[in-house]
Specification:
about 170 residues; alpha+beta; 4-stranded mixed beta sheet; two-stranded antiparallel ribbon; 8 strands; globular
């Protein structure tokens, strides 16, 4: 993400994972509306999660304020995970500076995550930004679903479901 810094540093960024397909044609519009209506630096799009150990789960406070992000917890009572986000230049700047700081402090590639992680994820940076006082809000999509097609099993299921919806499968 930081490689795009010079291109997006003064812009609002809309982020989605390329291997996650979700319902909701207007999901990003709703996130942008929440961003415009609040003083949030980041707005997360939250979807119900059946397998929380595979997702970044989100704890909410009053008025859909994000209180914490728990990355792939082995067990949790949290119901929603984030799969899309929009953010202002405040977060883009935080991301850039945070990665530079990590690189200086660790003396290594800034894409390396904590010792138990092979790669630093945007969820880790969101956690750091929350701890640093950036303002996060959320929009919940309680009746919409998503599928991570990044695994062969889920891709096969998504293709089957699509064929079925189109009346091509049995």
């Amino acid at each position: 993400l930081d490689q795009a810094y010079s291109f997006v540093r003064h812009s609002v960024v809309m982020f989605g994972f390329p291997d996650i397909v979700f319902e909701g044609d207007d999901a990003f519009v709703k996130l942008l509306d929440r961003l415009d209506a609040t003083e949030a630096n980041v707005v997360l799009g939250l979807f119900p999660v059946k397998s929380p150990w595979t997702m970044d789960m989100v704890e909410l406070g009053n008025n859909d304020e994000v209180r914490s992000i728990v990355i792939k917890p082995p067990a949790t009572d949290l119901e929603y995970g984030w799969i899309i986000a929009v953010w202002t230049s405040v977060f883009t700047e935080f991301l850039h500076e945070h990665l530079l700081s990590l690189q200086r402090r660790l003396g290594q590639d800034s894409t390396t995550g904590p010792p138990d992680q092979s790669e630093l994820s945007v969820g880790h940076v969101f956690q750091a930004a929350l701890q640093d006082g950036l303002r996060f809000k959320a929009v919940r999509f309680p009746y919409q679903s998503f599928v991570d097609i990044g695994t062969p099993k889920n891709l096969e299921k998504a293709v089957y479901d699509l064929k079925f919806r189109m009346g091509l499968g049995t």
